[in-house]
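Hi there,

I know you've been waiting on this one. I reran it after we fixed the sequence typo, so this is the corrected version. Both the input and the resulting structure follow.
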Amino acid sequence: MNSHRELLRLGNLFYEKCALDEAREVYRQAFELARAQGDVRDTAEALARRLRMASEARDEAEISTLDRELRSLMAHHPDQIPAMVWYCQAVLAGQRNRWRESQTHLRQYLRAVDAELQRGLEVEPEAVARGWVMLANTFTQRGHLRRAELLLDWALREFESRSLKTINGMIYLQLGWLRLRRRDAAGAAPWFDKAHMAFLSEHNWSLHIYILYAQACLARVSSDFSKAAWYLDLLENMAKGKSFAFFREQIAVERSRLQQESVDLRVDGRKLQVHTREKSSISLGKQYVLLHILEALSEAHHRNGDDSDRALSKAQLIERVWGEKYRPYAHDNKLYYNINRLRKLIEPDMKEPQYLLNWKEGYRLAPGLRVQLQGANNPLRRGAERNGELAGVSRASRSKSQMIGLTKGEA
């Protein structure tokens, strides 16, 4: 393969499949070959696509070099610049949250596509549709929701029946985002599902990861916070390597929104961490007893019923955490000691608990507390802990109780 045009097509295919390192290398080869053969149009397109990938990787040095070279080419050959250059410029502006600038570039892109069609140049069948759909996205991002809705409704009528590559998925995705922007989760979900099926059928993994991101946002708006966190964890595992730097920034922003909206108390059994309103991360280390107390109280907190249904007696806690039948003389000091240890970690003021409250002959989490429980009820982990570390902690707490002479007074 020695045609720079064929190399550009191959690079686009790699990009769709999320083989980003391969795409970057092929675009570089296309650029070198087009420049050596004096093809300004393909040189400019290869530069623009490389610039877009450098922006997604947040490679500022490469961005500066490629941008300078592309601007020089555009200044010296303004009549030979392909429409795709303006599209890539619009994407770059959007990645910097410069949506007005992105909108301007997209209008330039649409004018350039029209000019190429009039000149009889080779133009992708989906080129016009892509520009209008992304223009609707800039309207959504700028808060012009009615304009975005009108444009997307027109695009749906105009292009859906043509089955243009990726276009239907893009339209469905933008319609979903538009409704989610209005916090209409029920209205957004069907559009995201349709976009998912469209991208899946085309094996367009590069756009499909944005469906997973959309599902995370949808779950957050629907107050399904555990599901939202699951999607974000999945995306973080997928988006590894420098090529996904921009996408990881988006994940981090969404995770921050999730933490702000979702919970007052989050118990993460996978990472052995607790997050509260006051502290973003509290490590439990290997204090599995404290983790299991919180897990048991969190599970009770989510039960339906009156306040007594949401509390656990001392006997219930001993059975669920230690797996033993409750005997007051053997277990009370152990339980009080560990409840105090837990309060020292999570409570802003031990004297006035806000999270872990006494309740009759037991304990409960505060009424109205928004609690998220992640990674609980892992039987393999629980078995290992009860047979090993948990037994050790139990013996240590018993020994310390005897040493300092803890009484049976309330914790």
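Quick highlight: The chain has a mean pLDDT of 88.

Best,
R. S.
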